Amino acid sequence: MKNLFLTYILIIIIISLLIPSGKNNYLSIHTIDVGQGDSILIQTPSSKNILIDGGDDNSHHIISSYLKKQNVENIDYIIATHFDSDHIGGLDNIIDKFNVSNIYAPNYESDTVSYQNLINSCLNKNLNLQGLSSGDFINIEDNINLEVLAPSYIQEENNLNSIVFRLDYKNKSFLFTGDAEANNELNIINSYELNDIDFLKVGHHGSSSSTTSEFVEEVSPDVAVISCGYKNQYGHPHKSTLDTLEKNNVLTYRTDILGNIVFYSDGDTIFTTKDYKLNKK
């Protein structure tokens, strides 16, 4: 009887050693509802955390709370797509509260309070704000690569300097566009082969200045997400943008209607675990 018990214990130990700890097969993309702004958390199968943008000055409580609910203690990568306050306003507080390994931004400076707060928080944490531009490449982990598509050069308008990047996980591709506008989109589709994108973070909160018909037809996403505030003063997302997405049969999710939105991918499919009511306002 004792030998049988020892054999059973040995089998359990062997099985536990064969199962990877703390890993799963899913990439998750969390579009955090920060109102009229952007903040997206990407969590990888190996539990790496990528935070894209940090909403405005009032968003850091929302983001911090959300990150803690996802058991985030360390942020491996922060990407500040550009220096508008509705994208970087909350990042200084996030850097103050969490362990951050790397932070990236476009290669320019700004004279705004939000930018200076960001720089000060980086200095206090001995973080080097690293520049990203078209052609840069980051290997996040096995089967996950990040390729920067824009900006190719720095312009006067902040939106035109947005970091646009493609994230590939196995057989699925995800495109994140910041506040990139039509000129950026044209340059990108003329410079890169992007006809196999599966997921699109719609540029500039669904403004008509982005998401042109030519861009959507070329990129041909299956799923899109728009981050914008409920009944915001800009009227985002604009009807023309929604019409373009609908015309191209893109399943479109909006934070102003749905709040926080989470997508998952095993590298072959993209899905949600919640029954989002896309036709309800």
Automatic annotation (TrEMBL):
Metallo-beta-lactamase domain location: 36-230
Segments forming a coiled coil: none
Keyword GTP-binding: no
Keywords: Lipoprotein
InterPro entries referenced in this protein's UniProt entry, alphabetically: ComA-like_MBL (IPR035681), Competence_DNA_uptake (IPR052159), Metallo-B-lactamas (IPR001279), RibonucZ/Hydroxyglut_hydro (IPR036866)
Matches recorded under CDD domains: ComA-like_MBL-fold
Stored SUPFAM superfamilies: Metallo-hydrolase/oxidoreductase (SSF56281)
Protein name, per record: Metallo beta-lactamase super lipoprotein
Organism: Romboutsia ilealis
